Predict the 3D structure of the following.
Amino acid sequence: MKQIELAKTGLRISAQCLGCMYFGTRTDRKTSFQILDSFVEAGGNFLDTANNYAFWITHQTGGDSESLLGDWMKDRGNRDTIVLATKVGAKPRAAGTGLENVEGLGAETIVRGIEHSLERLQTDRVDLYYAHLDDPRTPLAETLEAFDRLIQAGKVRVIGGSNLSRPRLEEAMEASAARRLAAYSCLQQEYTFLVPREVPTQYHSIVDPALQEWLRRHSDLLLVAYSPLLKGAYSQPERLPEAYQTEPNRRRLEVLSDLAKQTGATVNQLVLRWLTESTPAVVPVVGASSVAQLRENVGALSMPFERATFDAMAAARNDAL
Ligand SMILES: NC(=O)c1ccc[n+]([C@@H]2O[C@H](COP(=O)([O-])OP(=O)(O)OC[C@H]3O[C@@H](n4cnc5c(N)ncnc54)[C@H](OP(=O)(O)O)[C@@H]3O)[C@@H](O)[C@H]2O)c1
């Protein structure tokens, strides 16, 4: 599988990241291990989890995905070949509660959070540590100083942000520069080929035009796209979220369907490859609940993909239909 550098960090990551959110909860241990093995066999090395996955399935506070990854890496003896990303800040304070009651990004939470994550992951370092959600109640300097100390201590290699609006991303980058602290190397947001209707989002999770414009001018900050397959909606249209049910998206889906017929690729593969081929490249964090899904998804990187297909998709996305 093609590898790229994670921004200018020196970390080499596979062009697809495996989303491990449901491993150990919705996806059982045996299947999760098989999916992880298949990903590595295909040349993947970049894994994504969080300290709160998947609390909404267990009605606890999360950590099952990290524990499963820790067991898998120990069993396979492959920690040093993996680029491991996890997140802090969106763990509910109490079982049975949700994102309205998260721990946030205070220094104490981060210091405690990394220790618990390292324990579950059975490792001494996390390669990429994300701030999972914006936390307007904690000064950015406090969060970034705490992350910087973890880097100095060798517990974290690089940091990233997630679910940030453009103004908050800009503030964070400026705060790091002004204090000479480590800055975010990547931003993890919801992003895919279809374009959501402008919806007020409580957690600023989507790449909106303002953020996109900023990212275009800062190609050293890598965009990592979560839910790139819209949780299976490209192959199961009844799953299409309300925000994506628009007339331009209906036309985009027609273009995708025609291209799939012409090229022999699946619609999911076209979407994933389009992200990879974008300039600057976008790294999709792709979830899979079976080995068959995983194989289809990683196959996106090795299938033939002509420039004309990319151009047709780019035109459709830009609405030039
Ligand atoms: N930073 C954040 O706040 C945030 C938020 C959400 C997710 N994430 C990360 O992003 C990862 C992916 O997110 P996601 O699971 O929401 O989105 P996704 O990758 O768009 O969707 C994954 C789901 O799509 C279906 N699917 C995948 N491949 C398929 C295929 N080839 N054919 C048919 N269906 C297929 C499966 O659904 P079924 O299992 O139902 O078949 C799978 O569980 C997560 O694991 C997590 O690491 C981060």
